[in-house]
Amino acid sequence: MATYQAVQLAQFGESFREAARIVDLDLRDPAPGELRVRNRYAGVNGIFDTQIARNAVDYVKIGLPTLTGVEALGVVEAVGEGVTDFAPGDAVVTTRFPGGYRQYNIAPQGHFVKVADDSPEWLALASTGVSAWMALFHVGQAKPGEVVAISAAAGGLGHLIVQLAALKGCEVVAVCGGPVKSDFARSLGAARVIDYRSESVPEVLAREYPNRLDVAIDTVSGEIFDAFLDNVAPHGRVVVGGAASDLEGRPEIVTAPRIAHKLYYKGASVRGFMNGLLAEFWPPAREDVFALYNEGKLKVCFDEERFLGLPGVFDAVERLLSGRSMGKVIVDLR
């Protein structure tokens, strides 16, 4: 019987590299209602992968061993009985765990979305592009003319939120580290870029945007979250999309008034964004993101580091966690 390789979580551990390994699996024909897809690219979610390795993602129940990875783009090789919407040769994307870090994915047809071709841009749009749209518009409810602040603005998610907010007619405040990332965020439409390596985010926001942040999307936590909260506008929304600076999840002693005091008199709110819990709302987001890309209004930027094959997954995860990446991080599985 033919076999294929996949990255499997064999145990729980502190890091993805420590907990996962590459294994050989039997390659089978698709059952009724299934597709067999040869993956060509995988999208990398370093924080999610690390938390999965630690069994720390509350809404995903892990039974060991399990395969890993969420996002992949591939080409359909075979379809099971009863499948009518897909055919061999179709390019498809999946954003369902654990469809990503594997050479082949055999899964129900409902796990896949057909895309125009097998270019990696479609992977980024169908996964991170949809996440960006959901965070900004579904959860953040951003409107034209509002001030939108974004942390990690040069990252895979951030660089797409910057563009979507600018296209909506929002005033974008981008937070990122270093002159290269700052120039990148500015080129995407950010009106104000705060380089946290050379400027104080709390001081800049207090001086230039006091109580003016209508939407603030944070994936970092710590000082940046506090600064966003301190300067949220009346009826503003602080969207929590992650906590990259707090992967350990240890309790932090904070000597400050409860956030209720900062929210109540402004009628403001703090909202959690977990895209995996919003699958029913993905189709309109995907339609809008695809249309903007086809019209040439939205561009996808990839990190300059290239990662090849399943062994490259481990390096790609660590690249993301290092904070050095800019744009979307993917692994070439061809």
Structural notes for this entry:
The chain is α/β, with parallel strands linked by helices. The protein has two domains: 3-126 and 301-332, Quinone Oxidoreductase, Chain A, domain 1, CATH 3.90.180; 141-272, NAD(P)-binding Rossmann-like Domain (Rossmann fold, 3-Layer(aba) Sandwich), CATH 3.40.50.720. 29% of the residues lie in helices and 25% in strands. The protein is built from ten helices and 15 strands. The protein has helices at residues 16-19, 46-53, 120-139, 158-167, 179-187, 201-208, 223-230, 260-263, 282-294, 311-322, and strands at 3-9, 20-26, 34-43, 66-67, 71-79, 91-94, 104-108, 112-115, 147-150, 171-176, 192-195, 213-218, 232-240, 269-272, 330-332. The strands form three sheets. Strands 3, 5, 6, 7, 8 and 15 form a six-stranded antiparallel sheet that branches. Helix 5 (179-187) links the parallel strand 10 (171-176) and strand 11. Helix 6 (201-208) runs parallel beside helix 7. The longest helix is centred in the middle third of the chain and has 20 residues, at 120-139.
